[in-house]
Amino acid sequence: MNTHPARASVRGLSLPLALVLVAACGAAGATPGPTPGPTILPGPTGGATLNAGELRLLVIERFGERWYCDPDEYPVSHGTEQERAIERFDEMVAEAEIYRAVAAKLGINVGGVVSDAQKLAIYHAWKVALSIPFDPVGDGRYRFDYLAAPPDNGVQGLRTMGIVNADGSIVIEQQAAAGEPMGPICLARGTRIDTPAGPVAVQDLRLGDPIWTLDAGGRRVAGTVIALGSMAAPKNHHVIRLTLADGRSVTASPGHPLADGRTFGTLALGDDVDGSPVTGLVSVPYPGRETFDLVASGATGIYFSDGVPLRSTLVPAGS
Predict the structure, then answer these.
(1) CB atoms within 10 A of CB 68
(2) Which of 73, 257, 260, 314 makes a 20 to 30 Å CA pair with 40?
């Protein structure tokens, strides 16, 4: 489900390139081809070691505005961005590295009382940084997958995949034009995500939490949460309760993808999902204010709910 293109500037954040978010979907001009080999971008001078929150901001700074469905630009969002900044303040604080990195960029002292205006300023950049898939690969390095917004009136963005090092230097492994991102984010509140410690409600997961995923060979292995996002649910939103013959069940928006790329809304009774026929597809009103999504570490980004493998909407289609 797509939204109208919109741009949201990050007020007061002094980065060389605007740290902004483009709502949902529309995009680019020129179509760059894939890079022929790794390109290395030097880090900031000074040689300081940067944490994951600081590196997320650096990636945005280097590649420009992020392109994905802004949870507060969706036309039917609930409440204002200021209200959501206040509602999600505890969540921001819990993601301490990003929260403190953004606050430091903005010159906000978070050691005392943080005003509502300051919460809004932090939230405006924090939600962008939180959504970037950042997979730890050791020695303070992270593999990232970043889709930058196209120029005005364009139809394709620029997708960059590579590794950012602790000193801020970046190894670009792949870079090519990419189409519009998916939206909106789609799992119902309370959806239980499979982890090595047992099921956890999707809204309770945080960056770095353990989670089950699939490796490149299709084997179920332990991974971690490397990106998170949420979206205000549209008015009169309906979700689909999928039930399989073997008893597995998961509820998500019609546009949410399975691991094979099919979406919940395209399924029919009798279709095979992960080796089991579909026995139930029920559209039910969604009472929640938000829907949710995440990315798992590793080669696929796939995660499980009640044993059903799901793909994330926070990375471009075709990943």
Answers:
(1) 26
(2) 314
| Pairing mode, strands 66-67 and 21-23 | parallel
What is the phi/psi pair of residue 99, to 5°?
-55, -50
Q: Can you tell me the mean pLDDT for 279-296?
A: 92
Q: What is the pTM of this model?
A: 0.82
